[in-house]
Amino acid sequence: MKNLQIPDSWQPVLAEELAKPYFAKLQDFLIKEQLSHTIYPAEKDVFSAFELTPYEQVNVLLLGQDPYHNENQAHGLCFSVKPGIKPPPSLVNIFKELRADLGCDIPKHGYLVQWAKQGMLMLNAVLTVRAHTPNSHKNQGWETFTDAVINRVNEKSDPVVFVLWGGYAQKKLKLIDTTRHLVIQSAHPSPLSARNGFFASKPFSAINSALTACGKPEIDWQL
């Protein structure tokens, strides 16, 4: 993880953050971790959410928590898995709600890149994880960095739709100016909580209604 490179469109927005001491400490931690453990996602994918959704194109921000920790799953977008990998339970529930909300066919894969390319920043709060060890990279600096990302998106002059699923994501509400941006929140899509308010919350039509209301293109959710 010596060569973590923020994509060009985000450089001016996050340059100040990357120069802070905590970020240097985070990089040192990741380099040490790599010496004795497998880290996901691969180094080239750590910032793929930023690569796929340039700062000026962010219309929606979907916040996840921790990358998937099993082999070949995580590739830098929250909730998404690599092609050919079986969708995990939370993503299966996302697809069920998508079908109930908009009638979309349930895809045979869980690769959500097409959503990211349409202006949805699919951001995890923590961007790396040790293989098979959930939350192993929390409190090492990533949360400070991704809070800064949320702050920068909040500073955009045009309205953004923030999507906060579950209690962890909803703690970030304090970073968002709700007089200028729209927030869509519900229970998390995980099997533990989906029936407590994620199912029937219709987030996908709500996102598109919000985008239409501020003159932005709807997202084509069908994968």
How would you summarize what this structure contains?
By secondary structure, this protein is an alpha/beta fold. Helix content is 34%, strand content 11%.
Mean pLDDT: 97
Uncertain segments are none
How many structural domains are formed by the residues?
1
Under CATH at level 1, the class stands as Alpha Beta
User: What is the assigned CATH homologous superfamily?
Assistant: Uracil-DNA glycosylase-like domain
Question: Percentage of helical residues?
Answer: 25-40%
Spatial strand order of the main sheet:
3-2-5-6
Characterise this structure:
With 223 residues, the chain is an alpha/beta fold. It has a single domain, classed as Uracil-DNA Glycosylase, subunit E, CATH 3.40.470. Helices cover 34% and strands 11% of the residues. The protein contains 8 helices and 6 strands. A 4-stranded parallel β-sheet has the order 3-2-5-6, with helices on both faces. A two-stranded antiparallel ribbon has the order 1-4. Helix 1 (11-18) packs antiparallel against helix 6 (142-154). It starts with 10 loop residues before the first helix and ends in a 10-residue tail after the last helix.
Q: Descriptors for this entry?
A:
alpha/beta, four-stranded parallel sheet, globular, two-stranded antiparallel sheet, 223 residues, Uracil-DNA Glycosylase, subunit E
Please outline the helices and strands.
Layout: H1 11-18, H2 21-36, E1 39-40, H3 48-52, E2 60-64, H4 89-102, H5 113-116, E3 120-124, E4 129-130, H6 142-154, E5 161-165, H7 167-170, E6 182-186, H8 203-213
Parallel strand pairs: 2-3, 2-5, 5-6
Antiparallel strand pairs: 1-4
Helix pairs in contact: 1-6
